[in-house]
Amino acid sequence: MEYATVKLIHVIGAILFLGNIIVSAVWKIQADRTNNPVVVAFACRLINVTDLAFTALGSALIVIGGIGLFHATGIALSDAPYLIYGIGLFGMAAMLWLVGLLPLQIYMSKIAARTVANGETEMPASYEKCRRLWNMVGRIAILFPLGALYLMIMRPDF
Question: According to the model, what pLDDT value does residue 96 have?
Fold first, then answer.
């Protein structure tokens, strides 16, 4: 593929990926502040949907574009350590999402849906425990791709 095309794919992927993880965090935090099970269940369900639609798609485009850029430029990884660090940070973010955030989101969504179905007016303690863990892991998971973005744009010499 042509350099400009794969760069566009890569940038669109980064926008989708980073945009969705940041917006999802904002939605979730705002929904949780209401402590209204209907609002929380709605937010949890939509975050699960948008994660599959935008975070997963953005990740795929980042990888496809990154591989395309690697081939289009012919840069050796040994000549660009920032690429190794950036890829590593992106990989760590992906692992945190897959093994930490995604299972927590699915579980919290089930808790919220069950709370609504039972007609309860406040979220249970089990949800609060998961919410705190999701917030902690989520903060770390956002820092990794932001670090990768910095490395890809600034291209520091190490």
Answer: 94
